[in-house]
Amino acid sequence: MANAIDGIGTINVGTLVSQLMSVEGNTQTLLKNKQSAEQTRLTALQTLNTQVLAIRTAAEKIVGSLYSPKTTWDTQTASSSSSTVAATASASAQTGTMTFDVLSTAATHRTLLSGAVSSAQALTNGPVTFTRADGTTSTIDLSAATTMSELVSTINASAPLGVKAIAVKISDDAYRLSLSASESGSGAAFTVAGLDPALGTAAVATQGADAVIKIGSVDTDVVSSSTNTFTDVLPGLTFTVTKPETGVTVSVGRDTSTMTSQVQSLVGALNTALGTITSKSTYDTTTKAGGPFLGESVTRALSSDLANGVLGNGTLADFGIQLDRYGKVTFDSAAFSKKAAADPDATVAAMTALATRVGTVAKKATDYGTGSLTTAISSRQSTVKTLTSSISEWDDRLARKKAALTAQFSALNTQLSKLNDQASWLSGQLGSLSSSSSSKSSG
To answer: How far apart are CA 84 and CA 243, in angstroms?
Structure first.
């Protein structure tokens, strides 16, 4: 009977260590899963925060700053019956209509001196005095201006004069001096004295004049402007005339198109935020997983507050706005426009109240450092940061553990290998003895 010693096997160190590390890494895996869930919630909250900020922005288009909401809505628009009269309305413009005649437009005073001089002709100018229509004077010493070019430059460099000069070339090396008021209007008209006689006498080329409109039936019912632009003839209304014309009508009214657009933007922002809260608060029975907002008190309270803000103390159905049973805000723009045109004051009151309510909710949610959403986001960021740090620490811990296990089992494997070699040698020796015994017996 043959004697043999069974071989002693070696260890697959890599497989064994991998299996053991899989067990060791369970805690880190749990941390990673938790970090992933927290990051998903954080991302969802950040997205919602952006959407709620959009509600705040849309509301402030209607009421201005939510720190001090206005009760008026700056949606005035101006119109003109004439293509030669352009009208605009400021935020403070009052609604109304005015009809007037444009009697004249504004003109800039200009004089042209009669004498022509060459570019090199020496001029002798003393103190030159400009006298304006109201009797005020300005005097400038032009004694150093001995040529036409120097004269023009010196006058133009004297800003307080309110007069600009130009040399008009009338033929080869022959120039006449033209002087113009810097501003239009009758008050800017002037006379000049003290220039070199070679420049000739000053003749009025264009008389400075005001723009004049007639707003009533008698000659004294006039309004003048030194420019062609009239401001606050009607409060908040500005219009510019370009030529004489009769029967011009300018009006200030509510811009229902802008009003409709701004309410549509507010409703759209509300639905985006409310829809996000709803979709991310569901539970999927197939995957057995809940949305990132499931059980989140902050988003649940925000949804309720926004819905209550839409409902207010009454109904907005007359203005085309309703909250349906699914929590969506519906908006009938045609009904709104009709109501805004029929009763603009009531529309303004209702919409500024709506914008103030939902805008205030949005403000309280998104205010930096104190808002319910910003606080929740900050908390989630802190949690994710802590989990990331813990996961990193586990990376180091697992690396050390893996190195230790690898070294331990590699050393064991070495011993087993030696034992295996010894077993093989002993088996060989026993085999030799057995063969020798068999040979002697047969002899």
So the answer is: 7
DSSP assigned state of 368 = T
Q: Is 281 helix (H, G, I), strand (E, B) or coil?
A: coil
Alpha-carbon distance 435 to 443, whole Å? 13
Low-confidence ranges of the chain (pLDDT < 70): 1-11, 13, 20-21, 24-25, 28, 416, 420-424, 426-431, 433-443
Beta pairing, strands 96-104 & 108-113: unpaired
Helices within 183-296 (DSSP H only):
256-279
Q: Rounded to 5 degrees, what angle do the CA atoms 224, 229, 233 make?
A: 60
* pLDDT value of residue 398: 73
Residue that the structure tokens 């033929």 belong to:
171
Residue 24's pLDDT is 67
Q: How many CB atoms lie within 10 A of CB 171?
A: 7
Residue 86 pLDDT: 96
**Residue 4 backbone phi and psi in degrees, to 5:** -150, 150
Helix runs in 158-293, H state only? 256-279
Alpha helices in 133-286 (DSSP H): 148-157, 256-279
| Amino acid letter, residue 28 | Q
Q: How many residues does the chain have?
A: 443
Three-state DSSP class for residue 192: strand
pLDDT for 284: 82
Residue with tokens 């004694």: 143
